[in-house]
Amino acid sequence: MAFPQTRMRRLRATAGLRGLVRETDVRAGQFVLPLFVTETDPGEGASGRAGREPIATMPGVDRLSLTALVAEAQEAAALGISAVMLFGLPAEKDEQGSGAWDAEGVVQLATRAIKQAVPELLVITDVCLCEYTSHGHCGVLREDSSVDNDATLELIAQTAVSHARAGADIVAPSDMMDGRVGAIREELDGEGFTDTPILAYSAKFASAFYGPFREAADSTPAFGDRRSYQMDPANGREAVREALLDVQEGADMVMVKPALAYGDLISAVKRATHLPVAAYNVSGEYAMVKAAAAAGYLDERATVLEILTSLRRAGADTIITYHAKDAAQWLQ
Ligand code: PBG
To answer: Predicted confidence band at 193 (pLDDT cuts at 50, 70, 90)?
Structure first.
């Protein structure tokens, strides 16, 4: 039956009717808040708030000292957010990125501090070398300056184990080396961390939307770009293949990143893997909304909630987003 017997507007008439038939919901428990922790305490600095250094391209996001980080984690937990994802800014970098697996490294210290102060909050650690290497690439370099996949695996696996040892609840490799999920699983199991899940950044694209993050984490490659290891934004079938390989290697959750321009792949990966899927609403996506809202071009609250809802509708079980605290507040 079609119009006039069928009228789609009948079920849109009131808030009650709309609520009754709403297909998708979004709640704070699905959010992961990314946090930047620095080994060098920024002091009072420009923010006038102890241990916080504002990130110019990400209004509302700061680089945090260990003390400020714990306060931020407490705030997130109080808002009902399930997890934080940690990115470290070490005091020093080297060719190998040895700060990444240092037992006393910045992420390891941060993980211990949060688990001690807020044990119920999940700590997810980003496992990568780019914040720790002097050249800013996600792996170690060969003589010819290309990234050496197989030599990097061992370092990535060692980094994941050091995070687990510090108390990380979930490890999330973002380096995009082939075989890293299997290498991490083997190393974790060998060291007794059989119950530590792996959230694989499976379909991670070489994206312009990471710009603000690289400023925040000081991880812009010193030369070249990441296109020889991160995916080509033109490729969808390849994204599904990456996710299926990670499933084979033992991933417990898979990720699609960025999120906004990749809703088709959130759906495709969800259908193909049957694993929980995380969508990473990345720094550039956040920056666009913040800039437009500050200029008065968009209603920030309505825009953010619409974006988060759309990611859930696409199939994301979990959303990693810098909007997490604001959104959790709005949803209360
Ligand atoms: C590290 C990493 C990046 C992001 C998450 N982990 C940067 C990159 O790959 O260049 C980006 C996150 C964001 O933009 O919010 N490899």
So the answer is: very high
Please tell me the distance between residue 220's alpha carbon and the centre of ligand 1 in angstroms: 10
Closest atom, ligand 1, to C-alpha of 175? 16
Distance (Å) from CA 257 to ligand 1 centroid: 9
Tell me how far the alpha carbon of residue 241 is from its chain's centroid.
Answer: 21
The residue type at 157:
A
Q: H/E/C letters for each residue in 265-280?
A: HHHHHHHHHCCCEEEE
d(CA 249, CA 321): 26
- Alpha-carbon span 183 to 160, nearest angstrom: 10
What topology does CATH give the domain 25-331? TIM Barrel (3.20.20)
Q: Report the predicted TM-score, pTM, of the whole model to 2 decimal places.
A: 0.97
pLDDT digits (tens, 9 = 90+) for 224-250: 999 999 999 999 999 999 999 999 999
Per mean pLDDT, which range of 5-19, 40-54, 305-319 is the poorest? 40-54
232: which DSSP letter? P
The domain locations on the chain are: 25-331
